[in-house]
Automatic annotation (TrEMBL), chain A:
GO terms for cellular component: cytoplasmic exosome (RNase complex); nuclear exosome (RNase complex); nucleolus. GO terms for molecular function: mRNA 3'-UTR AU-rich region binding. It comes from Komagataella phaffii (strain GS115 / ATCC 20864) (Yeast). The keyword Lipid metabolism does not apply. Transmembrane segments: none annotated. This is Protein involved in rRNA processing.
From TrEMBL, chain B:
Residues 6-125 form the Exoribonuclease phosphorolytic domain. It holds the Pfam family RNase_PH. One of its GO terms (cellular component) is cytoplasmic exosome (RNase complex). It is found in: Nucleus. It comes from the Eukaryota. Its main location: nucleus. Belongs to the RNase PH family. Coiled coil: none annotated. This is Protein involved in rRNA processing. One of its GO terms (biological process) is nuclear polyadenylation-dependent rRNA catabolic process. InterPro entries: ExoRNase_PH_dom1 (IPR001247), ExoRNase_PH_dom2_sf (IPR036345), PNPase/RNase_PH_dom_sf (IPR027408), Ribosomal_Su5_D2-typ_SF (IPR020568), RNase_PH (IPR050080).
UniProtKB/TrEMBL annotation, chain C:
The keyword Nuclease does not apply. Residues 65-235 form the Exoribonuclease phosphorolytic domain. One of its GO terms (cellular component) is nucleoplasm. This is Ribosomal RNA-processing protein 43. The keyword RNA-binding applies. It is found in: Cytoplasm; Nucleus, Nucleolus. The lineage of its organism: Eukaryota, Fungi, Dikarya, Ascomycota, Saccharomycotina.
Length: 298, 221, 368
């Protein structure tokens, strides 16, 4: 990015203006497109897109955790998302940061009840896997991947099983209604980028003025001087908070950011739940879809 | 004939992209190029072609490597490689949902070939000719194009045929992959029928490409 | 002005074939002979050595884990194939791919092409391994039932003697399951033994080592794999009550669970040959198509069993055929005449001709 563009963008942000016309605390529009299979979706946040696929299989549990199932998240960046990710070095750094945050936000906050995945203690359990592929990279990957994984888990259904004489019988989806996963709460990440009007020195002394935006695009992210990610759920609980270096931020500011984040989280939680409910209704009654199409034409 | 559903230009950071759905199989394809090649890929007189296929679940394995190799054969024969010396054309494919028939991966490959064609056009890569593929099975002595997964599972042989297309005619055989149990005569029938299938498919694909190009051409009067 | 006479540069055949493989091949073919001194449609000679280093080889009984082996030499290239095995419990496999209606099993091959240094496996190795895996599966040579295990039972009799009891009809299933009629190793019928109804199967792995690669090695690997499978012997297995272990674990909520582990033991001597579908066994051939300019027109030549750098890189059009009896089980054509500038247009006649030649080759290979 040229120095000109750099300064222009920063100055605009300082005045509370963004290239795409958003307000500083406004998210890009979120859209979730549900695929034909359970746990398959395309999540779009502005221009950023990820493909999520949840899958399950029956495996032997870990030796030291015989009563728990297994849950893995694998997110991958490649040249499809952005040509710069062809360089392994560039990709690895982003990937590590991303997977650590998602691990903290979803796995360690116990969003998925692992004990409910146990089938026969020490012998059989479900292994749930979330594959996230970033197909269009436009900043703020943490938030969109987190939304994708949690929405996928809420939507996913695993085939029903029964146990006879110690053998597990897997029932086909057409034979028995598949069962949803037990998701305990819905953590959602909100990432803020922090910029400072003055120099680094001013910031440390407390002279400069900091300004914060939510849901940065790729360009805005490239200029960032500090990042903070808050993970909350709709019970007004903070699940995870991470601020790794960058410029300093006043404590009061963090509190007000938490309140801003809560509004966004409530909004998204409602949207995710509504989308999944709507899809569920369509699956139960496919005729409804045709009726809707007819209605929309009228 | 079952027509594939497709869409182009859905990704922003790459030069060309497409999604294609054939039955239950859905593939996203992106093309970036010509870009700078890594030193070990660089060829002095022509461009290098890199193909990456990601499976539906997990990371790529030998299954995807084998599919990449087959797709590269098709692209090698159609991309105008001498137009881009010492450069690289990168093709990424992500199989969003794979074929339910686990017998073989020809249906997935079929979607990949046609998806790559659309993405290459979207990326404005110079091609020597158009190309399309067909997938057919022989089931109860009947030749079925675009089979469903039940038909695939009960079939004796499977054939993926790819021809290049010049002036609306299927011209030259680019790639054939046949597995199962079949005779030479059956193979010849498959080839003949594939020509017809590809030509009629081309008429429709070409129409939408023409529409797309005129829509993309923003400087029109 | 006097024009300067350009100097001629001379190369040895080795260097020439590296710099301009297409011209090198063209000059050779114009003489009517290939760089490797073979005729156009002549295959390399094949030597197969089945006398191997397996666990049950009469000449060489060892405790090795190799169940079948072969050494195949084609021209300069040697491929060594060793089949090893493992045992899985059938209810461990619940994924779709293995529980599907497909009645055929395959082996898991690992191909290593010696190239004078070590490192991560190359794309070619992975592709050949995957091709062997897929071709074996689709050709239907091994039925899943051929790998099913009917195990015996080792226990202590009342007078503290150890005996092993095996199923009456031998360890191999033929699809019909008649359990609970066991026979002692010496032939006497035993009283009912509490056989667990847990099902086990063998999984086979093939380790292929390719030395002195001089051309596409798939054909040789396939031949080596088939020849090794043909002499593969599976061990008799039995359940030993002494090695069955169980332990109890407690959950956080206080519930108890017992984890049982039982082990199948392979008999060191008793074995049976694996049942293959002999009729479906076929062999593979690879052909290259080369175009050489001949005045105004150009001439297309089909080369059988391509070998050497010049043939491999100059013939961009390749045909791989696997033939079993009068049927084909796999066929791959890599076409595209514009690719290298000198590839060839694949016509039906060439396909027919290569299938004919592949038939003859397959007959020859199955006779040795």
């Amino acid at each position: 990015m040229s120095t000109n563009e750099h300064q222009f963008l920063l100055k605009a942000l300082e005045e509370g203006l963004r290239l795409d016309g958003r307000k500083p605390m406004q998210m890009r529009p979120l859209n979730i497109e549900v695929g034909p299979d359970y746990g398959q979706m395309l999540v779009t946040l502005g221009d950023a897109k990820v493909v999520v696929r949840i899958s399950s299989e029956i495996v032997t549990p870990y030796e030291d955790r015989p009563f728990e199932g297994i849950f893995q998240v694998s997110s991958e960046l490649d040249g499809m998302g952005h040509p710069s990710f062809n360089e392994a070095s560039h990709r690895q750094e982003e990937e590590v940061m991303l997977s650590r945050l998602i691990e903290k936000a979803i796995r360690r906050s116990n969003a998925l009840d692992l004990e409910s995945l146990c089938i026969i203690a020490g012998q059989k359990c479900w292994s749930v896997r979330a594959d996230v592929h970033i197909i269009d990279y436009d900043g703020n990957m943490t938030d969109i991947v987190c939304i994708g994984v949690i929405a996928g888990l809420l939507h996913f259904k695993k085939p029903d099983i029964s146990i006879r004489n110690g053998t597990v019988i897997l029932h086909d989806m057409s034979e028995r209604e598949p069962v949803p996963l037990s998701v305990l709460h819905i953590p959602i990440c909100v990432t803020f980028q922090i910029y400072s009007s003055g120099s680094m020195e001013d910031n440390v002394k407390g002279d400069g003025r900091e300004f914060v935006i939510v849901d940065a695009t790729l360009k805005e992210e490239a200029l960032t001087q500090g990042t903070i990610t808050l993970t909350l759920n709709s019970n007004k609980e903070l699940c995870q908070m991470s601020k790794s270096g960058g410029i300093n931020l006043e404590v009061d500011e963090i509190l007000s950011l938490t309140n801003e984040a809560q509004i966004i989280v409530d909004d998204f939680t409602k949207y995710i739940k509504d989308t999944i409910k709507k899809d569920e209704e369509l699956r139960v009654n496919p005729l409804q879809k045709e009726l809707q199409v007819v209605n929309s034409r009228e | 004939m079952v027509l594939p559903e497709y869409q182009t230009s859905l990704l922003n950071k790459v030069d060309g992209s497409s999604t294609i759905s054939i039955g239950e199989v859905k593939v996203i394809c992106s093309v970036t190029g010509p870009i700078e090649a890594k030193p070990r890929q660089e060829l002095p007189t022509q461009c290098a072609i890199e193909v990456n296929i990601r499976p539906e679940v997990g990371v790529g394995s030998t299954r995807e490597k084998n599919m990449e190799d087959k797709l590269r054969v098709v692209l090698n024969g159609t991309i105008n490689k001498f137009q881009y010396p010492r450069q690289l054309i990168q093709v990424h494919l992500h199989i969003i949902s794979k074929s339910q028939a686990t017998e073989n991966n020809l249906k997935d490959l079929h979607a990949c070939i046609n998806g790559a064609y659309l993405a290459l056009i979207d990326a404005n890569i110079s091609l020597l000719s158009s190309f399309l593929s067909t997938y057919a099975v022989i089931n109860d002595d009947r030749l079925i194009f675009n089979p469903t997964s039940e038909q695939i599972q009960s079939s004796i042989s499977h054939h993926l045929v790819c021809f290049d297309i010049k002036s609306g005619r299927a011209d030259e055989l680019l790639f054939v992959d046949s597995v199962g149990e079949f005779t030479e005569g059956e193979l010849m029938t498959v080839l003949d029928q594939s020509i017809e299938e590809i030509e009629s498919m081309n008429k429709i694909v070409r129409k939408t490409i023409t529409e797309k190009v005129s829509r993309d051409y923003i400087w029109k009067y | 002005m006097e024009e300067e006479q350009p100097e001629f540069i001379q190369f040895t055949p080795n260097v020439f074939s590296r710099i301009a493989p297409d011209i090198y091949l063209e000059r050779n073919l114009k003489e009517g002979i290939r760089p490797n001194l073979r005729k156009y449609e002549e295959f390399r000679s094949v030597q197969v050595n089945n006398k191997g280093f397996g666990r049950y080889d009469e000449s060489n009984p060892t405790k090795s884990s190799v169940l079948g082996s072969s050494v195949v030499k084609v021209g300069k290239t040697t491929v060594i194939c060793a089949i090893t095995g493992g045992i899985v419990s059938d209810d461990d496999i619940l994924d779709q791919a293995t529980t599907s209606s497909n009645p055929f099993a395959t082996v898991y091959p690992l191909v290593e092409i010696a190239r004078g240094r070590s490192g991560a496996c190359t794309d070619e190795e992975m592709i050949i391994a995957q091709k062997l895996y897929e071709t074996l599966k689709s050709s239907g040579i091994i039925r899943k039932s051929a790998l099913k295990i009917r195990y015996g039972y080792k226990h202590r009799t009342s007078d503290d003697k150890v005996e092993v009891i095996f199923p009456r009809n031998g360890p191999q299933t033929d699809g019909t399951n008649d359990d609970n009629d066991q026979v002692m190793a010496d032939g006497n019928t035993a009283e009912t033994i509490p056989f667990e109804d847990k099902q086990y199967s063998f999984v086979l792995y093939a380790n292929l080592q390719v030395f002195s690669r001089t051309g596409p090695p798939f054909d040789i690997c396939w031949t080596a794999l088939i020849k090794a499978l043909k002499n593969t012997k599976l061990p008799y297995t039995f359940l030993d009550e002494d090695t069955t272990s169980s332990r109890t674990v407690k959950s956080r909520s206080g519930a108890n669970a017992t984890i049982e582990r039982s082990q199948l033991i392979c008999d060191p001597v008793l074995n049976y040959p694996i049942k293959l579908e002999e009729k479906k066994i076929g062999y593979s051939s690879t052909f290259g198509l080369v175009t050489i300019p001949d005045g105004e027109k150009s001439q297309e030549i089909l080369l059988a069993d391509i070998e050497g750098e010049s043939e491999e890189s100059a013939s961009t059009s390749l045909v791989h055929v696997v033939v079993a009896g009068d049927k084909l089980t796999s066929l791959t054509i890599h076409g595209g005449s514009k690719a290298g500038g000198n590839g060839s247009r694949i016509t039906k006649d060439f396909i027919k001709k290569s299938i004919d030649l592949a038939h003859q080759r397959s007959l020859h290979l199955s006779s040795i």
